[in-house]
Amino acid sequence: MITIQNLDKAFAKQKVLSDVTIKIADGEKVLLLGHNGAGKTTLIRCLLGEYRPDHGTVTVAGHSLAHERVAALRKIAFVPQLPPPIRFTLNELFEYAAKIGHCDIDKIRKNSIYFGLNTDAHDHKAFYKLSGGMKQKTLISIAFSRDADIFIFDEPTANLDTMGRDRFRERISADAMKEKTIIFIGHRLEELSSVVTRIIELDLGKVIRDEQA
Amino acid sequence: MQLLTIAKLDFLESFRSRWFIGYSSVFFLMVIVIFLSGVTESRVMGFSGLTRLLLIFIQACNIVLPIFILVTTVRTIAKERDSNVFEYLLSFPVSLASYYWGKALGRLLVIWLPLLLSMLLALGIGLVRGGEIPWKILMLYTTLLAFSSFTFLGIGFFISVSTKSQELALGIALFVWLSLIAFIDIALIGFLIQQMVPDNLIFSLALLNPVQTFRIAAIALFDPVLSVIGPTAYFLLETFGQAGIIAYTLLYLFFIGLLFLSLGYFVFRRRDLI
Q1: Phi, psi torsion values for A182, nearest 5 degrees
Q2: What is the dihedral of CA B164, B165, B166, B167, to 10 degrees?
Q3: pLDDT tens-digit readout, A167-201
Q4: In chain B, domain spans
Q5: Which of A20, A120, B209, B257 keeps 20 to 30 A from B231, CA to CA?
């Protein structure tokens, strides 16, 4: 269960989130919509404990992101829209994910192969030197290898080829994901219409639409 | 355990980076150039050979080490934050203490290793050339370089987490370095003459400047009366004695490093992470 209660966040004098209250139950598949600047990224960063709310609270399974960060984040796996230029080699990134994110490196490798990426060939290559699609597949593989209850995908298929997109849809529709909560951030509904159960739309930092799909 | 993983990965990542290669090369080349220039053959204040090489090397480190550490630290950390690397890596269940102190530990090893290797290179040169090896000085300088690295790493981390952009962080790092360099002894004497400020205040200011304390400890073993560093020396010798000056310097450098690292951690925990 994710509980976002009366959340406010401003940068300098610009209010980016204003009194946002959202409750997401276990197993819900939420599409978070909104134009550029609507506040989607800020909301997710508050949910990941990376932005401190000016007012309000964010909890995951009862754990406050402000006070019990590690317990809350153990339940969350996140894939950003644009893979950042991480300078770790693939091996090092997998070690980070395995030791910090509590997952198995073999599982990451198996998932990578499922998404059409043979990581063995790139083990010693720096992550930032991989192509956009390879980077995205790597981060998606890591996310699916985590023992998380909540998955947050920010435009996850933006850099993927056709096969990668198909595999991604297959994976999120699989039985193993039925109990998992998934939050998709994006602009398009069509691609995810078969999976999404709820749509939340933000505009100018406020929830303007919250309905079952 | 998380802390050691972060330290190890940061060390390995930095070890491959271009800044590390440039940073290490400067110190290795410095030792080689001092040796090849022939100054080790000349005798100044009764010193020659490896002792002379170490004296010149430590004086050069006194000036360049702070700026190298400050710039590389603030640039790499601010860059990771600006390019959303932190956004991804901090989305994992890592404690902020492990992440921050692990990164500091990894970075400390990375910046100190080339200095240690430079000292070993100097020792190797000394052994090949023959003659007496000044073990006491060698040990003191290696320790001084480690403590000084820790000091400026702490200041660098504090600047990095307290500023929001790479450019600002770099600007502040340069300003801090210039201020510390400006307030070494020569500037202090000028200041003293112009402003008629009480002597003890000026001497106290000198003792608060980590660049100055490093310089004093580095010279203390060669020049028991500290004549080359000006009037501050008399005050220091009267107050602390030679061993006291060295002990004060090491403790003070450690204290400043720990203070700024801790302040940085406080800021890191309290503000938005990215």
Answers
A1: -130, 135
A2: -130
A3: 999 999 998 899 999 999 976 667 777 899 999 99
A4: 2-270
A5: B257
Pairwise CA distance, residues B59 & B145, whole Å: 11
Between A181 and B232, name the one with better pLDDT.
Answer: A181
The full set of domains in chain A, from first to last, is 1-75+183-213 (3.40.50.300)
Amino acid identity of residue B224, one-letter, is P
Give, for A145, the enclosing helix (H) or strand (E).
helix A132-145
Cβ atoms of B32 and B129 within 8 Å: the answer is: no
Number of helices (H), then strands (E), in chain A: 6, 10
Which tens digits make up the pLDDT trace of B96-142? 999 999 999 999 999 999 999 999 999 998 888 877 788 888 999 99
Contact B111, B72 (CB under 8 A): yes
> Chain B partners of A97 at a C-beta cutoff of 8 Å?
92
Cα distances (Å, whole numbers) of residue B256 to A84, A89, B151, B163, B250: 34, 34, 6, 20, 10
pLDDT at B45 over 60: no
Could you tell me how far CA B115 lies from the centroid of its own chain? 10
Of B16, B93, B272, nearest to A52 by CB-CB distance is: B272
* Both structure tokens of B110: 């990375």
- Among chain B residues, the shortest Cα distance to A128 is held by B85
pTM: predicted TM-score of the whole model, two decimal places:
0.91
Q: Are B225 and B45 in contact (CB under 8 A)?
A: no
SS3 of B225, please?
A: coil
| Confidence check on the interface: ipTM exceeds 0.85, yes or no | yes
Sign of CA dihedral A56, A59, A62, A64: negative
**Interface list for chain A against chain B, based on CB atoms closer than 8 Å:** 45, 48-52, 69-74, 76, 78, 80, 82-88, 92, 95-97, 99-102, 126, 139
